[in-house]
UniProtKB/TrEMBL annotation:
GO terms for biological process: cobalamin transport; monoatomic ion transport. Residues 1-24 form the signal peptide. It holds the Pfam family TonB_dep_Rec_b-barrel. Belongs to the TonB-dependent receptor family. Residues 181-582 form the TonB-dependent receptor-like beta-barrel domain. Keywords: Cell outer membrane, Ion transport, Membrane, Receptor, Signal, TonB box, Transmembrane, Transmembrane beta strand, Transport. CDD domains: ligand_gated_channel. It comes from Massilia yuzhufengensis. Residues 43-147 form the TonB-dependent receptor plug domain. It is a multi-pass membrane protein. Its main location: membrane. It is found in: Cell outer membrane. This is Vitamin B12 transporter. The keyword Ligase does not apply.
Length: 610
């Protein structure tokens, strides 16, 4: 990878020059996803980012993907407005190489391998944890680029109610409400939301199926959690989430309302037991449903339905061995697909997995190691990982890790008539990375280098091997995902600053071409300040050129987006948010011939949201 070394050195020098001379350690945050257990951020070796509810609330975003796009190491592509089909690339990995969890419940389509990002409700989210790099030893198949876990609100303390009503460009209307708290042995949290938007044309002139009408969306959701402490150290809980999305799209200039109707449902029952002073056992039964109906004409032949149901039983044991932790895990997951139009996809796949992890700290040294075996119709897959960290003191730490991962073939890649091949094997990944972190005196800095080598990549091969014509999904390619990420945040006088820069080279080694829709450089900068009852901030998102196809023949230009916002705290509990996204009105594309919004505004009156 040919990195701009001079600019890199300058950026590092500037970043460390900002550092305060004070070395008082900042308060530790707690993250869960990196090791499946709550950990202090200072004890986590994996590269991790946490997005909190306040950042989400002031983002004025129309979808979770819009929030993620502003984070380091993440790019998105979307076929239209916030309700349209969306893909998220993490460290250059394909969107089906990212595991997505909702409160510990795995979600996604088994036919496409991609989560329904457009159906996830923003108003219910408490925080989002992003863990970069391979995590197949913890989460199994598909954790090649990383894991993104979305947490909804939890109940704690006295009852707290919150809500917001908002409106904006493209006739956007939003309404959210929630209540959470605890009473004695019970904890509870419930929320509901509704969002409508008239949107804009999903496609541009010249696109296949172009129709100049507006393509809007409607999203409705409800979720809740209820838990009871049945004895000291023993808890029983249930949780659920239901989201309905109706999104229009273009399929020609006819009068029929072409649209996708998508339902996303999760439910789980869990029990956590402190069996011994050093042994905690957690059992969870979970189910997720991803239901997608497409309607292209009034006739029955113009409708199709593809549903994925995932049932998972997990038994997780955390055993404290002095200052160390041994974790033992068993998982049983069943994927079931039903298709109204393609009977060949209506199948079931079962995966059983066994895993162990060990975490230790010895003075300034951090260690972790993990191993896992997944057993399914694609055979037995063994993965392993190891990490090391050294704390130099005064807020400075170095880390290094290596790990293997794999992606299971989707049902489309295995069974879709005329495209899938039942002989397709899982993709395999081997990742090496090193990082340097500084966190002290209100300054946080990160530098991470990674190199992820993928083999047996599944691509659409044309012609299909053994045939003169046609295409099919086939194990043929190799790829390298290599890059360097710099990130930092600091407070200078009354201004909070945040920045991230990504240099990457996601390359198909078989063809020598860059992977589609991924830039070599992308960056994000943000600044905000408070003035009495007012807050104000600005964000800048930058992306280099990309290619819309694997042959690198269709270029997508680079772009820069400027976002501005202000918040007026009318009372301690009531605030008014006003936001302008893409303030300069930049015309750009995330996918060739698909529309993106120009300058938009959004305003919301909020109660109990800080």
């Amino acid at each position: 990878m040919n990195l701009p070394v001079t600019r890199l050195a300058a950026a590092l020098s500037l970043a460390f020059a900002i550092a305060s001379p004070s070395f008082a350690q900042t308060l530790d945050a707690v993250v869960v996803t990196a090791n499946r257990l709550p950990q202090r951020a200072t004890d986590v070796i994996a590269d991790t980012t946490v997005i909190h509810a306040e950042e989400i609330a002031r983002s004025g975003a129309g979808s979770v993907a819009d929030v993620l796009q502003r984070q380091r190491g993440i790019e998105i592509t979307r076929n239209g407005s916030a309700g349209a089909a969306t893909s998220v690339f993490l460290r250059g990995a394909n969107s089906n190489g990212v595991v997505v969890l909702l409160d510990g419940v795995r979600v996604g389509s088994s036919t496409s391998g991609v989560a329904a990002w457009n159906a996830v409700p923003l108003g219910a989210i408490e925080r989002i944890e992003i863990v970069y790099g391979p995590l197949s030893t913890l989460y199994g198949a598909d954790a090649i680029g990383g894991v993104i876990q979305i947490f909804t609100r939890k109940g704690e303390g006295g009852p707290v109610a919150s809500g917001a009503v908002g409106a904006g460009s493209n006739a956007t209307r939003t309404l959210d409400a929630s209540v959470h708290g605890s009473s004695g042995a019970f904890r509870y949290a419930f929320s509901a939301g509704h969002e409508d938007a008239d949107g804009f044309s999903a496609t541009r002139p010249g696109a296949f199926g172009f129709n100049p009408d507006d393509d809007g969306y409607r999203r409705r959701n409800a979720n809740g959690q209820l838990s009871m402490r049945i004895a000291p150290g023993h808890e029983l809980g249930v949780q659920f989430l239901h989201s309905e999305l109706g999104a229009q799209y273009d399929s020609g200039a006819g009068a029929y309302d072409t649209r996708n109707d998508q339902d996303l449902d999760t439910a789980a029952v869990y029990m956590s037991n402190q069996l011994l002073p050093n042994w905690r056992s957690t059992v969870q039964f979970a189910r997720s449903n991803d239901k997608l109906g497409s309607f292209t004409s009034a006739a029955a032949s113009g409708a199709s339905q593809i549903d994925t149901q995932q049932d998972e039983f997990t038994w997780q044991n955390a055993i404290a061995l002095g200052a160390d932790t041994l974790q033992l895990l068993y998982s049983h997951r069943q994927e079931e697909v039903g298709s109204s139009s393609t009977a060949a996809l209506s199948r079931t796949r079962i995966t059983n997995a066994y895993a162990a992890t060990y975490s230790a700290r010895r003075g300034s040294h951090l260690f972790d190691a993990s191993a896992r075996q997944d057993r399914s119709v694609y055979g037995n897959r063994n993965t392993g990982a190891a990490g090391y960290g050294y704390d130099f003191g005064r807020g400075l730490r170095a880390t290094a890790s290596l790990g293997s991962s794999f992606r299971a073939p989707t049902f489309n890649e295995l069974y879709y008539p005329g495209y899938g091949l039942p002989t397709n094997r899982p993709e395999k990944g081997r990742n090496l990375e090193a990082g340097l972190r500084y966190d002290a005196g209100g300054v946080q800095l990160d530098a991470t280098w990674f190199r992820n080598r993928l083999t047996d990549m599944i691509v659409s091969a044309t012609p299909c091997p053994g045939m003169r014509t046609g295409s099919c999904a086939y194990n043929v390619n190799e790829a390298t995902l290599e890059g360097l990420t710099l990130a930092g945040q600091a407070r200078i006088k009354d201004v909070n600053l945040r920045a991230s820069l990504d240099w990457q080279d996601p390359k198909d080694e078989t063809t020598g071409k860059r992977l589609a829709r991924r830039a070599k450089q992308h960056a994000s900068f943000a600044a905000d300040t408070s003035m009495g009852a007012f807050e104000a901030g600005a964000e800048l998102q930058l992306s280099g050129e990309r290619f819309d196809d694997a042959a690198n023949a269709r270029r997508l230009g680079g772009y820069g987006l400027l976002n501005l916002y202000t918040i007026w705290h009318i009372t301690p509990d009531i605030s008014l948010l006003a936001r302008v996204n893409n303030a300069a009105g930049k015309q750009y594309e995330l996918a060739r011939n698909y529309g993106t919004s120009g300058r938009t505004w959004f305003a919301a009156l909020r109660y109990g949201i800080r």
